[in-house]
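Batch manifest, entry 17 of 40.
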Amino acid sequence: MVADLEDTLDEESLCAALAPQDTERLRLDAPRNDDLADIVTLANTRKVATMVATMPHPFTLEDGRNLVAKAAQRTASRAKFAIRMKSTGRFIGAAGYSALEDGGAVHLGYWIGEPFWGHGYATEAAHAMIDFVFSATPITQLTGASRVTNPASRRVLVKCGFEFIDQSMIMSRGAGGAVSVDRFTLDKSTWTALKRWGQMSCLVSD
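Output type: structure tokens
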């Protein structure tokens, strides 16, 4: 599946993948080296790291540099965006999508720094990310996951149209072992129907 996506990435799709995505309050664009102080400060907390499977803890300056470098390597099946306050440009979190393994489903991920929790930013960013994926890339299905101890992340996925699949165990770098997660899926046809019916609103609280 991933190889097929890469083969269908044309110049127009690549340009779209590099373009900033604006919402009512946020801008999603490439993380930069001048974001490093905010990236490290916001990511270097167990409350964030234990909810993001691939995030190390402690989160070092070198980890921040790696995040910025990897984000510059966008493809049809993988992209990472900084989440910023549109009014100030300040980095407050990150969102992206990637194939978890060769031939596997494309996974939607996101995180918001703790000082910015409770304002609906995760839902707003996830909604924009989903719109981008289904309108500007060849991807036709997304998966998502939230720890069973993280009802706020579960609500984000449900508000964005994802349907519950099952519970599973995944490895978490921040938690230092396997954790239980709820798994979700959203396909392009469902997204299209929800958009048509006007049932996807991003300006709601986390």
